[in-house]
């Protein structure tokens, strides 16, 4: 592998993350905010490793018998592209020689995020687990263009009636086993739509004018095989798409802090996030996830 492709720092760590293979567990929790990393790792039995570079913070430790890392990705699928590819490289190459390993090492990614619902009946502070994710960004068009050919993506494209200048949506599934476990834990099933931004791409206009023909009410009315779009975020489709391409398992869990249809926001968002983390970390410790 050329040095311009698999880029390492002087200490042998991978370029953006600044860590080596021994610093990261193959079971990874992702959060957007670096300040949320210690909020998660406080549930660990103990922490073996801490590191931060730019907005990327990682803590690695133990939950029961499970080695776990929690890492911040920042916001957006552009950051997901960096994080997932570099973590994958740590487990797919001999970093010292740049040569591929002989065996594939499947990883597990669990996103612990926050989100806004676009269905009126989804309650604030509830947990939604995404069976699949729709990407309105363009990340997976560079990796697997066939994801935009999925029947759900095609049906949504027709439903939206967007001009050609707007990206064709793509669709990627989460891991079926992790999804089933989350449903058993009482989470609400959903389909997450991942957007390239927080404001206009998610239908928010403070001082700007709407230039697309659809809005969140229009998206909420879309249905495919009895599935509806439940919530909006900025990362899930990238995590699901790259995990599928790279051969890893991924699931995305969202604490619903806003209901965009009802125009409401959680009265205690920190508690909602804390409760989500508690449910997931205890389930990992008990061997359920």
The level 1 CATH classification is: Alpha Beta
Strand content: 25-35%
- Physical arrangement of strands within the biggest beta sheet: 7-13-10-8-14
The DSSP helix count reads 7
Tell me which CATH architecture applies here: 3-Layer(aba) Sandwich
Which spans of ≥5 residues are poorly predicted at pLDDT below 50?
A: none
- Compute the CA-based radius of gyration: 19 Å
Structural class: alpha/beta
Main beta-sheet annotation: 5 strands, mixed, barrel
From the 3D structure, determine the CATH topology: Rossmann fold
Q: Could you say how many structural domains there are in total?
A: 1
Describe the model.
The chain is an alpha/beta fold and 289 residues long. The chain has one domain (21-285): Rossmann fold. It has seven helices and 15 strands. It has a five-stranded mixed β-barrel. Strands 5-6 form a two-stranded antiparallel ribbon. Helix 2 (77-92) runs parallel beside helix 6. It is globular. The chain starts with 26 loop residues before the first strand and ends with a helix.
What are the SSEs and their pairings?
Blueprint: E1 27-31, H1 37-41, E2 46-53, E3 56-63, E4 66-72, H2 77-92, E5 93-94, E6 99-100, E7 108-117, E8 127-135, H3 151-160, E9 170-173, H4 176-184, E10 188-194, H5 216-220, E11 223-224, E12 227-228, E13 231-233, H6 236-246, E14 249-259, E15 264-265, H7 269-285
Parallel strand pairs: 1-4, 1-7, 7-14, 8-10, 10-13
Antiparallel strand pairs: 2-3, 3-4, 5-6, 7-13, 8-9, 8-14, 11-12, 14-15
Helix pairs in contact: 2-6
């Amino acid at each position: 592998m050329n040095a311009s492709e698999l880029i390492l720092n002087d200490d042998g760590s991978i370029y953006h993350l600044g860590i080596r293979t021994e610093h990261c567990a193959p079971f990874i929790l992702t959060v957007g905010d670096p300040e949320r990393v210690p909020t998660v790792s406080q549930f660990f039995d103990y922490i073996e490793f801490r590191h931060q570079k730019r907005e990327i913070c990682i803590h690695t430790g133990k939950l029961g018998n499970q080695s776990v890392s929690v890492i911040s990705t920042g916001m957006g699928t552009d950051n997901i592209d960096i994080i997932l590819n570099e973590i994958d490289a740590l487990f797919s190459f001999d970093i010292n020689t740049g040569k591929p390993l002989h065996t594939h090492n499947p990883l597990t990614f669990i996103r612990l995020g926050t989100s806004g619902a676009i269905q009126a009946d989804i309650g604030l502070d509830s947990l939604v687990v995404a069976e699949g994710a729709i990407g309105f960004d363009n990340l997976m068009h560079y990796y697997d263009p066939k994801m935009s050919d999925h029947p759900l993506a095609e049906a949504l494209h027709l439903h939206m009636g967007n001009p050609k200048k707007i990206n064709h949506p793509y669709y990627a599934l989460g891991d079926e086993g992790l999804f089933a476990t989350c449903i058993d834990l009482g989470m609400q099933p959903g389909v997450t739509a991942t957007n390239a931004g927080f404001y206009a791409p998610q239908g928010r206009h403070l001082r700007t004018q709407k230039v697309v023909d659809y809005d969140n009410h229009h998206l909420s009315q879309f249905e495919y095989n009895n599935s509806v779009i439940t919530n909006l975020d900025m990362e899930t489709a990238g995590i699901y798409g790259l995990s599928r391409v790279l051969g890893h398992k991924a699931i995305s869990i969202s604490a619903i802090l806003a209901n965009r249809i009802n125009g409401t926001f959680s009265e205690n968002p920190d508690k909602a996030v804390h409760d989500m983390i508690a449910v997931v970390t205890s389930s990992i410790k008990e061997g359920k996830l």
